[in-house]
Structure formats: C-alpha cells, structure tokens
Amino acid sequence: MLPSPDPIAEGSAIDPRSLPETVLAAREPVVLRGLVSHWPLVEAARSAETAIDYLKRFDHGGMPVTATVAAPGEGGRVFYNADFTGFNFRREQVPLAVALETLRKYLGDASAPSIYVASTTIDTFLPGFRAENDLDLAPREPLASIWFGNRSRIAAHQDLPQNLACVAVGRRRVTLFPPDQLANLYIGPIDATPAGQAVSLVDFAAPDLKRFPRFAEAMRHAQAAELAPGDAVLIPSMWWHHMEGLEAFNVLVNYWWRDAPAWMDTPMNTLMYALMTIRDLPPAQRAIWQEVFRHYVFEPGEATADHIPPHARGVLAPFDEARVRDLRARLLQRINR
Fold it and tell me: Could you tell me which Gene3D superfamilies the record lists for this protein (predicted)?
C-alpha cells in the first residue's frame, strides 16, 4: 500500500488584486482557494457548453492551435508508446474553434479520445481574454498560457519558472513532489520527451512497484490537492507536478515567471553540455571537475575571485545582459568550430 500524499498547504484571505510576496516567491507549494472565482470564465464554468461558448468569443481564427490526441484506451495519459520508439498520441494543427467544438461533441461520450491543447499563449490566440480574466502580478511580467481539453493525465515533470496555475473550468488533481525526489520518480529520457520536459515513467493510476520500487519513497514526500473552478496552486520552480484533468471539459490558465533576469539561459543547456563533456570522463577527472564547479558555480566566495583586480575578472565578475551576450557569442564560436 502506497502512502497517501499530504494535503498541499492552503493560503487564507488572499486578495486577488494584491497577491503577497510570501506567496509569489514561495519555495513551498500553496493552494489558493477561490483566487479567480470572480473571473467571467469561472462563472461560465457552471456549464461546459457555456464555457466553450465564452472562449469562442475571443477566437480571432488567425492561426491553428496544436491539439494532442490519444486513443480512448490510453485513459488520457500523454506518454510514450509501449516500446519507447515514439509516443502514444499524435499532434494535429487545427483552428481553435474546431478544437473547442470537437470537445463539445464528446462531452457526453465516456469513450471519447483524449484531446489536449497545451500551453497556448493567451495574448496571441485569445486577444481580449485577459481584459476580463487576469491577475495583476506586477512588477513581474509573467507569460500567461491557457490549457484546455477533456480528461487527461500529464506525467510528473519539472518546470524552471514559478507557476501559478488557476483552474477556470472543470476539476484538476495536482500531485507535487519536492525537487530532491528526482531519483525516486524514475525520470525518462531528457532529450526525447512527450512535451519538452523529462517525465516520470511511473503510471500514477497503477504504479508498478516491482519495476519502480523507490516510488513508494517519493510518495512519502508527496503533496496533493483537488482543485475546483476558481482555485489556484502556486507550484515553485523545479517542483515535480503530476496534473490530471478530471472532467469532460477542463480549462487551466497559468502564469509563468522566473526569479532571474530574462537574459539568463536555462540551466538545462548546461546539463546537456555537461553530459557531453564531463559525465563519461574517468572517475578521478570527474571528481576534479566536481570541485571546479563547486568552486566557481555552486559555492563561490572570497577564494573565487577576490584576489583578481575587479577590472580583470572577466566571467568571474557579476553578469549583466551585455556580458552574457558577449559570452554566448564566444561559446557559439567554440562549439561550432
């Protein structure tokens, strides 16, 4: 028997017009009940039909969305195929209105295929939507995205940005794990992924503990919540999250932002390059590079650069956009030679 996840902590008396810094900069997840219950889309969510009609008001019809479609037998799981030579779904480019009307057609069909339109930029595809349904996160300038579809199961994965995920239509179950559960979640390939991020290979609906025995330990650290229309959850940077859409029509609006300058590259690029250049060195040489990274990257201090005149520190000096642009150009020259 797997341990049951603990409930995600819940914030109280949160004013959606002025979200406190303690929430937006949180390093632990928090559920915010009713945060966006005032949105017109949430009010329309009393009926899936009404919610679909509401969303279609903002469709300019100018470009298609990407719909992920999986057979009914997959149970909504967006994943690999059986032998990991590909995936268990196909992607289709369709007009937004067609995706919505297809979901409407399947509302009462218990054997419907899984249809999932993921991470669609609101300002691009639904202009005017945020004038009626939005949160003011100033001074942050988050990327606002919309996700909609029918019943779905999105494998546990990490995202680099902070993520404020707001349920607008339907119900969602979210299961979270701290970043240190990496080894216990049995993460799959990091370069061939269902949707850009490496995912847990464990089927949360039917965990195979013979194949994935450490998953039981991961569940001892899990936190979970079921979210209704109007509820939101703050998922801190790099927390693993497994997302389930529980209704025949579900809509999620999320806000992503990084607590770092926009000019900083993603650390995933560093990981990929380190795999290529360091992982397969002899153990003694790997240990040397581990110390080098500790000294320059993970624990920089007085011994790192204080003995060098400030004007001569180069990349050991604090970065700014211009210095990063110059370094990126030099790295590209080295890589491409």
Answer: Cupin
pTM over 0.85: yes
Q: How far apart are CA 62 and CA 76, in angstroms?
A: 29
* Under 8 Å between Cβ of 45 and 65: no
Is the domain of 244 the same as that of 286?
no
Residues 168 and 22 in one domain: yes
From the list 66, 121, 61, 132, the residue with the least C-alpha distance to 97 is 61
Cα-to-chain-centroid distance, residue 166:
13
> Which tokens in the block code for residue 20?
């406190």
Alpha helix (H) residue ranges in 14-95: 21-24, 40-44, 48-56
The 10s digit of each residue's pLDDT in 26-53 is 999 999 999 999 999 999 999 999 999 9
What are residue 210's phi and psi, to 5 degrees? -70, -40
Structural domain count, the chain: 2
Q: Give the span between the Cα atoms of 307 and 198, in whole angstroms.
A: 41
